[in-house]
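Posted in: Structural Biology > Protein-Ligand Complexes

Title: Requesting predicted complex, magnesium ion in pocket

I'd be grateful if someone could produce the 3D structure tokens for the following input. Sequence and ligand are given below.
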Amino acid sequence: QMKLIINNVEIQNGEIITINGSNGEVISGKIATVEPELSNYFSIIMNWADEIKKLSVRTNAETPEDVNIAKKFGAEGIGLCRTEHMFFDSNRILYMRKMILAQDFDERQKAISKLEPFQKEDFKSIFKIMGELPVTIRLLDPPLHEFLPNSSEENKELLKTINATKEDLKNRIEQLDELNPMLGHRGSRLGITFPEIYKMQAKAILEAAIEVKEETGKSPVIEIMIPLIFSAKELSMIKNSIIDVENLVKEKKGKVSNLLVGTMIELPRAALMADEIAKFADFFSFGTNDLTQTTYGISRDDSSRFLEIYLDKKIIDIDPFVSLDSKGVGQLIKIAKEKSIPVNKSIKLGICGEHGGDPKSIEFCNSIGLDYVSCSPFRIPIARLAAAQAVIFEESNNLK
Ligand code: PEP
Ligand code: MG
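-- Reply #1 --
Done. Output follows.
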């Protein structure tokens, strides 16, 4: 049994503690909390900020709860809806696992068709909350092994419902296991190798939009986003299959009026090839978490083990996963912007990595003229304020 000892106080594994997020104080047990109230002064300052800022502020959210919070804080759209989070629910994960472990196309298709209604309902509830504000939905991104069971108990449960022996399951799990820092069979690579998954997601998105229009009279503004591409070819292939789905949906249920298809720029090669990629993209969203990871060659999940020492030794001033490295990673963003605009004048450019809620990074995004930043719901007020401050700093620097 693991335990934690702080100043002679023993806390057992599994025991609940409370952390005061403002000062880091650790309190034993679960203490009662109250929802903070948004005062009148808060909205006055936020409105001042909105009058000045140039960047739009969107949110990264995928549950109705988070989308509602973000809207209350003034989100002007969703910049990143990570669809993978929708598959972990206990009543869906089984179908996800069946889809991953399917032996052939028919079996996979059967599992996918069970997931589709869940996805459609998720999208409908998000579209209803967001009304006519833009919603960027990212198609499935993580490697499939992340969805598989990792205990023998769960394996036993799964074996009761799938057509496989214990040995088959073990082999398949081993086959899907990856050792790399999220650089394997993920992102658009899933869309290329298992086109049915993205087709199901696109169909669920488009049908949800049509049904929401019928039910509320408002047309959702949809941006379908493809993750982790390194070439125009990947994007154009996946975009074509989305257009095929769009045509099928049009025949059956009608036309979706506001649909854009774009991509994340999360790999250095994608930034360098932005002129080719922009021909097929209505928007670019810079995934600065992965872009930082791949530009530095530092795995974002393991970096905390040594970045402290780099900070102590002053090799870096700040953790690049917290505040955007404007010199290096930022240079790739600038290159992508400069290369994309001549081939696609109307391309929309934003960022959706964690940096989207960091004031210094927001200042950088403002200085290079991006259209929006997207951050987690509770960061929205800070982002609105930082976006306005960035304009004020810029103007006062120009006067010097
Ligand atoms: C990113 O890489 O910046 C991003 C937003 O995607 P994720 O964090 O889900 O990889
Ligand atoms: Mg990413």
